Every structure is written in structure tokens, then in C-alpha cells.
Amino acid sequence: MIESHAPAPPGAPPPWVGPPRLPVRPATGRFLVLACVFVCAACGLVYELELVALASYLTGDSVTQASVVLSVMVFAMGIGSLAAKRLRRHAAMAFGALEALLALVGGCSAMALYALFAWTGDWGGLWASGPRWLLVAFSLAIGLLIGAEVPLLMELIQRIRRQDAGGAVADLFAADYVGALVGGLAFPFLLLPLLGQLTGAMLTGAVNAIAGGALVLGLFRRDLTPRARWLLLVANLAVLGVLATATVLVDDFERAAREAVYGEDVRVALQTGVREVALTGGTDGRPLDLYVDGSLRVSGRDEDRYHEALVHPAMDGPHARVLVLGGGDGLAVREVLRHRGVRRVDIVALDPPVVDLARRDPALSRLNGHVYGDARVHVSTQDAFRRLRRPAPVPSYDVVIADLPAPGITASAKLYSEEFYGLVRRVLAPDGRLVVHAGPVSPRPRVFWTVDATLRAAGLRTTPYRVEGRGPGSAAGPGRTAGAARAPHDWGFVLTKKARPPGARP
């Protein structure tokens, strides 16, 4: 008998594809493959968001970090899809091995990034060595592995029941996009609040490994040799063992990393929602430092210099009613209450844990003069932008003090917008004053003058000024990232009043 070597007709299946050898009916097998697509897509998006969130937490620049992670990942996904075309002949084994590797890399990525940052403190410019490059490396590796899933899953679907390419692609991407939606919603609303960044990433890796391993070893086990089945089983068990061990040790790891970042005298460290608050010092003559999400909010070395410069120029004039935006630590309010004639101080602070510490921690409450025990002080823990936009009438204030995170931090950008200053202008009394912390001047003069220009565009007359710290390495107020080699040596402020209409009397 002579074997024919004539080319296969167009649309015919590849020569290595034999009849399906499944332990279940084709319809059930197809459902299981699409369910695995759903789970893997959810895990893949969690990995992406985890990298963005951790990098933003460490640097404070979420736009840059999201751009780097997502652009590198999308590029890598395309390369991974092309590379996986060569693996279609062994689609089941390749997919199982790929998911085990993806679970290990994605599950451990957050811990590896945080460890390098904590023990090197090297997260400088965009392309600095250390964690920045590791972020790109993890984004590239995870993107390659996620991209390689698509052609392999397509091959597995077609192995079960061949159909036109358009229908198979539609089914695959429907499951993929719905899974991405679930992963994207689970990350901020479930994983972060309940488990935290590190444990959440490792749990995601475990789910990824179980889903991929179960699909291949359960549904496509007859496509594997006995040796291949054992190798894949051992690989998945090893990955799950690594992730389980890391999860057990995560508390000790976080404690050691926190000490490496903040110093050895961490007194208070708590996680509320997605925020981490840490207090160091404040006892035995050591200066108190307050960190929120890795950013130094208060330094006992010269916080008085910062808060005096922020508050006292604005209090020169009527000051019966004062609104403090931010400043949950109570230190700006301490300076406000030193002025006679203050009848009411309203604080709008976004961080309930900071306010709670300012009330209860002996060192911090002593530093702020126990202002939360003063009957004139009223606090509201909500977003300042939302508070000022509410339709209910807002009382007018003689003084508004914006003691907010530095404008270079993307999450606070809306609080330095023309619209926000317009809202503040509405609540200012006719002779009221607004003072804005506009970040350090020396390293970022363009940011400082942009804040000044935005205030003028909102119809306010501006008086910019600058105050130096007491010495090298000192800092107070928002804007210093934990682990930075040197802190800002100055702070910039802009004092404003309402601009009078043309022809009005001074």
C-alpha cells in the first residue's frame, strides 16, 4: 500500500489532530474548557492589577506605573501568542506547563517586588535599576504566558469539536472577557480588602494552577504519556507548595519588610481597606513619623515648621470659621486653634485610620495638642471633592486650609484642579483666604507654578511662598516616599484670596 502525500484540502484539521479521547461528552468537555478560560482570564487580570497597584503604592505615580505595566503586557501577549503557535502539536501538555509557570510567576510577583524595594530602597527614575526593571520583567513574563494561552486553548476547543474559526473565537473571547470583568472587580472589592496585596496574589496563583492542572490532567489526560502526567502533577504540586509556604510566612515577611522600609521602631502598623498606616518613634525621645501607604505624612523632626508656614499666614484676618481639607493628623488644626476668635473648625479627611490614630495614639495626640477633644473641632471622613460638590448648602468659611497629599501623587490630582478650586471659591467668605500646600519647590518648580496658575485660573489672587526645612534629610507634611534616600528640603505654599471684579473698590 502506497501512502499518499497529497496536501490536505483547505480547512482540514492539522494532521496531528486525532479523534477526541475525552472522559466526558464533547458538550461537557467544551464547557469545562470555556470555564478554564474564564478562570485563567480572571487570574491574568488580577496579576496585571496587582503589579499596577503595588508599583503605584511604592512610587505614588499610578499613571506611569499603569502605562508601563499595561503597555509591556499587551506587547508581550502578542509575542506570546505568536510563540505558542509552535506548541499546538502538544497543546494539552504545553497548556498545563504554561499555567503552572504562570501561577508561580504571577503569584510570587508582588512579594518579589516588595522585597526588592524594601531591602534596596531603590525605586528612583523611570528606568532606574532594581525594582523598576523587575516590574518590567514581571510584566513581560506574565504577558508572554497570558498571550500563549489563547492559541493553545483554541486548539483544545477544536480538539473537542471542530467548528468554524469565527464561532470558536467568539466563544473563547466571550469567556475570556467575562472572566477579566470578574477578576477586575474581585481585585479592589474582595482580594485587597480581605487578603491584602501579597496574600491575594498568591491565592490567585493557586487558583490558576488548580484550574490549569485540573483541566489537563482531568479532561485531556489521555493525550499525555504516563511520564508527562506525572511531571505535570509534580510541577503543579510544587507550585502549590511554594505558594502555600509563602502564604504561611507572609506575616513574618511583611513585618521584616516593614522594618526595612520604615525602620526598626515601628510602633503601629495597620491595614484598613486598601491603606497601610504606620507609626514609628514617638517614645524615648525619638521623633514621631507617620506613614500612609508608604508616604511620609508627618515627621516630628520639623513638622512644626511645615504646619506653622501652612496655617499662620492664612489666619491673618477674620478666622471665626475654618475648613481644613486633609490634615487628619490634627497638626494643622493645632496651629489654627492657637488663634483667638476661632469658633468652629471643620476637618474633611479621607483617612479614617489616620484620624483614629490622631485621637488615640498617645504620642500623636500629644503632638497635635489633643485637638479632637476640643468642642470646636468637627471631623468628617470623606472625599473633599465630593464634600464640596454636594447639593446641600455649604456654609462659608473665613479660612480654607488645603493640607493634602503632594500634587505629584496622581491619586490626588483632582484636588489640584481648576474645578476643585472653583468649588473651594464658592465656600469662601468675601474676604476669605485659601492656602494650598503645593509640594516641594526646588525639585519640582514646574509643578509648584502649575498649582499657582491653576488657582489664578479659578479666579483667585495668589501669593506664592516657600519655606525651607531645618536641614538635610528632614521633611514634614505629605510628599515623601518611604525609602527615599533624601527628603525634600523645602515646601511650597500658595496663599489666595478672591479676585475682585474690575472696577471694584479694594
UniProtKB/TrEMBL annotation:
Which SUPFAM superfamilies does this one have?
MFS general substrate transporter (SSF103473), S-adenosyl-L-methionine-dependent methyltransferases (SSF53335)
Ranges for domain PABS: 241-485
The EC number(s) given in the record are 2.5.1.16
Enzyme class label: transferase
Q: Which residues bind spermidine?
A: H307, D329
GO biological process terms, semicolon-separated: spermidine biosynthetic process
Q: Respond yes or no to whether keyword Transmembrane is given for this record.
A: yes
Quote the catalytic residue positions.
D403 (proton acceptor)
**Where is it located?**
Cell membrane
Domain of life (superkingdom): Bacteria
Q: Which GO terms describe its molecular function?
A: spermidine synthase activity; thermospermine synthase activity
Q: What keywords tag this UniProt record?
A: Cell membrane, Membrane, Polyamine biosynthesis, Spermidine biosynthesis, Transferase, Transmembrane, Transmembrane helix
Residue positions annotated to bind S-methyl-5'-thioadenosine are R275, D383, A384
Region (Disordered) spans which residues? 464-487
Query: What is the membrane topology here?
Result: Multi-pass membrane protein
Primary location: membrane
Similarity remark: Belongs to the spermidine/spermine synthase family.
- Could you tell me what this protein is called? Polyamine aminopropyltransferase
Can you name the source organism? Streptomyces sviceus (strain ATCC 29083 / DSM 924 / JCM 4929 / NBRC 13980 / NCIMB 11184 / NRRL 5439 / UC 5370)
Gene name linked to the record: speE
